[in-house]
Write a structure and sequence with these properties.
Largest sheet: none
Distance between the termini: 68 Å
Order of helices and strands: HHH
Radius of gyration: 20 Å
Number of strands: 0
Number of domains: 1
Structural class: mainly alpha
Length: about 100
């Protein structure tokens, strides 16, 4: 009888730990997406005719790489799907 009570407690703790992990992953994902939109608006020009400076382009690439690396360390599944989506988006953009 003590075993069944103990397994119920462990099951509740496991569910709470899984919830905390998914909550942390969601928070990190949303934070990274917001940061990418922020650095895109800050370092890349909004006008279609205007070209970004080399320094702004390098800063955007470096900061984007750091943010995507953090995402890859946090959750590889989301990172792989995001990279697949970026590849599809770039491929469609090249064929326009």
């Amino acid at each position: 009888m003590a075993d069944t009570c103990n397994s119920r407690d462990n099951d509740g703790i496991d569910k709470l730990a899984n919830f905390a992990k998914s909550l942390l992953k969601s928070f990190i994902l949303l934070t990274i997406v917001i940061c990418i939109f922020y650095i895109k608006g800050k370092y890349l020009p909004k006008d279609a005719g205007e070209q970004p400076t080399v320094i702004n382009l390098i800063l955007f690439i470096l900061l984007g790489t750091v943010l995507l690396t953090i995402l890859g360390v946090t959750d590889m599944y989301i990172f792989n799907n995001l990279m697949l989506g970026l590849g599809i988006g770039l491929g469609i953009r090249f064929f326009e």
